[in-house]
Every structure is written in C-alpha cells, then in structure tokens.
Amino acid sequence: MTNRRTLIKTTLAASALMLAGLGTTGAAMAEELDTIKEKGVIRIAMSGAYPPFNFVNEQNEVVGFDPAIGTEIAKRMGLEVEIITTAWDGIIGGLLANKYDAIVGSMSITEERDKVVDFVGPYYTTKRAVFTKPGSGITSVSQLGDVKVGVTLGETHEEWAKDLGYNVSTYKGLPELLLELDNGRVDVIVNDSIAAILAMTEKGQEFAILDDLETDAIGAGIAIREGNPKLAAAMQEALDSMMEDGTYVAIAEKWIGADIR
Asked: What is the CATH number of domain 127-209?
C-alpha cells in the first residue's frame, strides 16, 4: 500500500517528467488534493478495452469494475469523476503530463512503474496466464519459443514475453487479443487470468490454460503522480472504507462475480 512505499524518488520522477515534456521537477509540484477539491472533479484514466474491468458499452459509456471503483472512491472524497480513455502504452506518460489525475485501469504494480509514479492499493490481485485454443497441441510453457505469442502493447506481459525471447505480436486490448487467438493469427495469448477467463466465458469462446506457468500473484494499483501524500492518503482511506463496509465486494460481485481482493 502507498503508506508502505517510499515517496523519495525525486531524481527518477524528475527524469520521467522531462520525458513527458514538462518543464518542472517533482520538487516543484504542489500537493494536488487541494486543487482537485477546488475543481470538485477527479479525472481518472483507463484504456476502455479491458472487459469486464473497463470497456465501452453499447450506449458509448465506459463501464466495468475499474470505473465503478474509481467513481465510488471519488464519491467518498466528495468529488465528481471524469473518466478518460486512452491508449494503454502511453497511459503513464499522460498521467505525468497532467492529462488526468489518476489511473484506475487495472495497472499491475511493478518495481519499474513504482520508480515514476506512486500507487494506491492494491485494489485487487490476479495472476499471469497463458491461453490457447483447445486442441492446438500447445500444452506447456516450454513450447512458447516455437509459437506466435499475442500480448497487449504496454502491459507487463509484453515485457515478460520479449525478455524470454518469444515471437511476440502486440495488440491494443483484450478484445483484439481474443479475436486474434480465435482466428488463429496467434497461437497463444498472455494476459491477467481473471480478465481473460471472464471475457472468453462471456463470449462463449473455448480456451485452454497452460497449467505449468509459474507466476506470483499480481497486485493492481491506482497510479498517481509522485509527491502527493495527501491525495494518496485520501484515496487509500476511501478504498479501505469500501472494503470494510461491503461496497467493494458488491462491486466485485456485479462485474467479476467474486471477491478478488
């Protein structure tokens, strides 16, 4: 959780901000909670392409577990929420460029990301999984070096697959990944287990999971810009209260079908 993480990352944060095209350093940034409260609105970002966690419905509304969590956090902070969708591979850059105030988009907490942003949470956990079509003949992770591997651009799974030297194809989001697997343009896809299983089950798409993948649980957190302990604390307090009074479980049951803390 944020209160257990160091907030002293000035050099790395300043470098990231320069890359994002900003002319200031982390030290010069004011605490943002006061500014957000003055506006009465917190802007949260997500890809909008990660069902059932976040996606665009037939009414062109961004819905799912992530926007529901973000909206409830905002409500408990006395704020309205503005949901912004953006490409996943540039979502941290957009946060650092002040295009929104937080990322509530199922972002895995990693050491690399924690060098340039701060995290609230985690607000759920999942695991990496490798999926293929039934009858594909692919039954083991040891075979992945000889097949086409589909991943979402900018996700931690892309880095994992490339580090292992796999033949990787990147896509914009989970719906495109599932289509490519179904059409046989990739042999396997790598994704967070919960999201992929739920999405394929919803579609009626048959799948098989490689059961010999060794992976740790992955925590998803809410990313905010560094140097904002008041904002982090307020968001964490809202999240904790949701988990304590049953609201979190109700949201999780609605969108995921289970408590995924």
From this structure: 3.40.190.10
